[in-house]
UniProtKB/TrEMBL annotation, chain A:
Spans annotated as Disordered: 1-30
PANTHER family in UniProt: DUF742 DOMAIN-CONTAINING PROTEIN
Family annotation (Pfam families): DUF742
Name of the molecule in the record: DUF742 domain-containing protein
The organism's taxonomic lineage, starting at the top: Bacteria, Bacillati, Actinomycetota, Actinomycetes, Kitasatosporales
UniProtKB/TrEMBL annotation, chain B:
Keywords (A to Z) from UniProt: ATP-binding, GTP-binding, Hydrolase, Nucleotide-binding
A GO molecular-function descriptor: ATP binding
The organism's place on the tree of life at top rank: Bacteria
Listed InterPro entries: Gliding_Motility_GTPase (IPR052705), Gpn (IPR004130), P-loop_NTPase (IPR027417)
PANTHER family in the record: ATP/GTP-BINDING PROTEIN-RELATED, GLIDING MOTILITY PROTEIN MGLA
Family: Belongs to the GPN-loop GTPase family.
Pfam families listed in its UniProt record: ATP_bind_1
Protein name per Swiss-Prot or TrEMBL: ATP-binding protein
């Protein structure tokens, strides 16, 4: 394909390819990311960051789930995970996985369930 | 940490803002197509429900055989989700599972890390939730059955429905109106109580 690319066409696979530099999925630090993982900025945005990275840092000043970030940025999970991996590796964000449901067949912590229960009862 | 330049729009969870030290828990809302999953997420969420997309490449031949999908294409599935501020330090995320059967191969990943699930059942079409119940049992995800009462639903004794669904006597069955916030909240309360009972039993048997 020749001729200048239109930067005004941000949709579809081409956009994702550009955003991620062609990487298809995260490895290492971001491989455990869940839709309910909370992302928290650990650094302010600095000039020169990729726009999406900057956007993530800005939105995650207060913790935000990966699912919410994906919805706000209009990015599917696997693309967003690549971007989050970059920021994690650079120490710019912290990722806090959801509290695990069970370890070795034992149910979740009773104190946690009590906490959830009293929260729901207050609704 | 220098917070200069950071604005903090409130420390409470009511506005959908999560405090810095917070943790999350995850609950899934499952059930057949059209049983009211999105409706329940919407009625009980603190925020306007959002949709997030997961792009998947179907990779496993075994899975393809299982669900009878012949072509290998990229599929985008949407998850509707909402959240509930439990307290200053804890936020509960609710995810509605994709209703279409062809996406059920995804469920292994979806349910990882979930506390448990609500399986919504439309009593006019019990069979539409059979597959969801089977998946919960196969993956050992604790769940409650919520009978979503539609305006033209007939009254069925819960025991009759329990028999028809062929579920364990330990699995709670509750009736609800997924459109109603309190009713949906009560379903979540039933789920958490069930999880507590299971945990207590597991502790005793050790």
């Amino acid at each position: 394909m020749s001729g200048p690319r239109r930067p005004t066409d941000p949709s579809g696979l081409e956009r994702y390819y550009v955003l991620t530099g062609g990487r298809s999925g995260p490895g290492g630090s971001a491989s455990s990311l869940d839709v309910a993982t909370l992302i928290i900025s650990r650094a302010a945005a600095v000039p020169g960051l990729q726009h999406e990275h900057e956007e993530i840092l800005r939105r995650c000043r207060d913790p935000l789930s990966v699912a919410e970030l994906g919805a706000h940025l209009g990015l599917p999970f696997n693309i967003l995970a690549v971007l989050l991996a970059d920021l994690l590796d650079a120490g710019r964000i912290e990722a806090r996985d959801p509290i695990p449901a069970s370890d070795a067949g034992r149910g979740p912590d009773l104190a946690l369930l009590e906490e959830v229960l009293s929260g729901l009862e207050r609704l | 940490m220098d917070l200069k330049g950071f604005d903090h729009p409130g420390r409470h969870t009511a506005g959908g803002t999560v405090p810095t030290g917070a943790r999350s828990v995850k609950v899934m809302i499952a059930g057949g197509f059209g049983t009211g999953k999105t409706t329940m997420v919407r009625s009980v969420s603190d925020i306007k429900p959002l949709t997030t997309e997961e792009t998947l490449t179907q990779a496993s031949a075994d899975v393809d055989n299982l669900i009878g999908v012949a072509d290998k294409q990229e599929t985008t599935v949407s998850l509707d989700f909402g959240k509930i501020g439990i307290n200053e330090q804890l936020v509960l995320y609710l995810f509605g599972t994709p209703g279409q059967e062809r996406f059920w191969f995804l469920w292994n990943g979806l349910f990882k890390g979930a506390l448990g699930a609500v399986v919504l059942v439309d009593t006019r079409r019990l069979a539409s939730s059979f597959r969801a119940i089977e998946e919960m049992e196969r993956q050992n995800v604790p769940f409650v059955i919520a009978l979503n009462v539609f305006p033209d639903s007939k009254e069925h004794p819960i025991e009759e429905i329990r028999d028809a669904l062929d579920i364990s006597p330990h699995t709670p069955v509750v009736a609800c109106d997924a459109r109603d916030r309190e009713s949906s909240r009560d379903v979540l309360i039933a789920l958490i109580r069930h999880l507590k009972d299971r945990s207590a039993v597991a502790l005793e048997s050790r």
